[in-house]
Write a structure and sequence with these properties.
- With 417 residues, this protein is of the alpha/beta class.
- The chain folds into 2 domains: 158 residues, Lyase, Ornithine Decarboxylase, Chain A, domain 1, CATH 2.40.37.10; 245 residues, Alanine racemase (TIM Barrel, Alpha-Beta Barrel), CATH 3.20.20.
- The chain is built from 12 helices and 21 strands.
- The strands form 3 sheets. Strands 4, 14, 15, 16, 17, 18, 19, 20 and 21 form a 9-stranded mixed sheet that branches. Strands 5-6-7-8-9-11-12-13 form an 8-stranded parallel barrel, surrounded by 6 helices.
- A hairpin with a 4-residue loop joins strand 14 and strand 15.
- Helix 2 packs parallel to helix 9 and helix 5 packs across helix 6.
- It is globular.
- The protein starts with a strand and ends in a 9-residue tail after the last helix.
- 47% of the residues are buried.
- Bound molecules: pyridoxal-5'-phosphate.
- Pyridoxal-5'-phosphate binds next to helix 10.
- The site of pyridoxal-5'-phosphate (PLP) has 18 residues, from helix 10.
């Protein structure tokens, strides 16, 4: 459920007309619905209410401070993968005790930053990382709360670039090595072993991979218990898919029920790390048609947003629904929606049926709230677009459009002979 609807033929975000926002802030821009974000966090909380649980929003999906603040106020913690994300999560008011830190390449300065902050748990991805955490913790005179991220070797049946829980992937510890690794970890004075975690991939549209992974992880947790290693947290990662086109991903309710069925009667606290399922359908990218261009082969809608603003179509051939912001009674035809960037891969949609439009008309690229702005770049020296938030009948700019000065910040020229 999202809150982008047509009212009298005009696209609205909650109660605000998208065209009105475009008038004020210019195009392109990202637009997020605060109440959609809130609903999505609540849906996960409700679905897991029979268990001790914590929803840790995956910051890499959308790291805007206002977005993090909204999900944090709704009770969510954060799943971070870098020192920069830790900085953002804390700045947005998410308490350190609700932050889990994932990722295969945590550096010592990042580990130190997270230990000083007092995060809930490091999800360690290798014994080498464990050594690094021990050495930083010893230097700081602190104890690190840790889990191992295990690789359960289940196929999430999603795009290969976003599969992470297969044996051949770089993530996590092979599940067969987990027991030995935990035996080492519990002997370290610098560590407090508190959890076990996994994350098998993204945009997963079936329940069975989650169920299989959780069962495998639970088996390890039970084996650890027999060895006298008590674990409090079972972190099953993120990955719940959303509808971009015609997918039918599990709802938070179905997902929560499947987890609760498996964990009922245990005393684990379950952690989930949804990113896309919280933010994806809470955001759109609004863009304006610059030119229509007819070639003998095709019609192109050349718009002012591009692959630097939204990388997913170019990167994964991802499908994003595109709609005209104002409904009109005109003929439709198949067009390619492309940006101004000098790459053939710069497209937002190909062979898409859209109404006939004129330069100046607005289009909305839907389901762009996750892995949209966070994957944006300045390629072709394009300032990144602003991020606007709507709540009810109110809207505000949560991140300003970049300026040309922003583009060259930190650059210097040395005159050379
Ligand atoms: C990316 C990621 C997530 C979030 O994935 P979604 O598919 O957006 O839910 C959660 N946990 C970890 C460790 C991740 O790398």
């Amino acid at each position: 459920m999202d809150l982008f609807n047509f009212i009298a033929g005009k696209l609205h975000c909650e109660e605000v007309s998208v065209a009105k926002i475009a008038e004020e802030v210019g195009t392109p821009f990202y637009l997020y619905s605060a109440n959609t974000l809130k609903r999505h966090i609540s849906a996960f909380n409700n679905a897991l209410s029979s268990l001790d649980h914590l929803v840790c929003f995956a910051v890499k999906a959308n790291s805007n401070l206002q977005v993090l603040n909204i999900v944090g106020k709704q009770g969510a913690g954060a799943d971070i993968v870098s020192g920069g994300e830790l900085f953002r999560a804390l700045k947005a008011g998410i308490p350190a005790e609700k932050i889990v830190y994932s990722g295969v390449g945590k550096t010592k300065p990042e580990i130190s930053q997270a230990l000083e902050a007092g995060i809930l748990m490091f999800n360690m991805e290798s014994l080498e990382e464990m050594e690094a955490i021990c050495s930083v913790a010893a230097n700081l005179g602190k104890k690190a709360q840790v889990s191992f991220r295990v690789n359960p070797d289940v196929d999430p049946k999603t795009h290969p670039y976003i599969s992470t829980g297969l044996k051949k992937n770089k993530f996590g510890l092979p599940i067969v090595e987990a027991l030995e690794a935990y035996k080492e970890a519990v002997q370290r004075n610098e560590l407090e072993v508190v959890g076990i975690s996994c994350h098998i991939g993204s945009q997963i549209t079936e329940l069975s991979p989650f169920v299989d992974a959780l069962k495998r992880v639970l088996r390890v947790a039970d084996a650890l218990k027999k060895e006298g290693v008590g674990i409090k947290y079972i972190d099953i990662g993120g990955g719940v898919g959303i509808r971009y086109k015609d997918e039918t991903p599990p709802t938070p309710e179905e997902y929560g029920k499947a987890i609760a069925d498996i964990l009922a009667g245990t005393d684990f606290t379950v952690i989930v790390e949804p990113g896309r399922a919280i933010a994806g359908n809470a955001g759109i990218l609004v863009t304006r048609l610059i030119y229509t261009k007819e070639t003998p082969e095709k019609t192109f809608y050349i718009v002012d947003a591009a692959m630097n603003d939204l990388a997913r179509p170019s990167l994964y051939k991802a499908y994003h629904e595109i709609v005209a912001v104002e409904e009109r009674d005109v003929p439709w035809k198949a067009v390619d929606v492309v940006g101004p960037i000098c790459e053939t891969g710069d497209f937002l949609a190909r062979d898409r049926e859209l109404p006939q439009m004129e330069p100046g008309d607005l289009l909305a690229v839907k389901s762009a709230g996750a892995y949209g702005f966070t994957m944006s770049s300045n390629y072709n020296s394009r300032p990144r677009p602003p991020e606007v938030v709507v709540s009810g009948n109110d809207f505000w700019i949560a991140r300003k459009r970049e300026t040309y000065e922003d583009l060259v910040r930190g650059e210097t020229i040395r005159e050379i002979a």
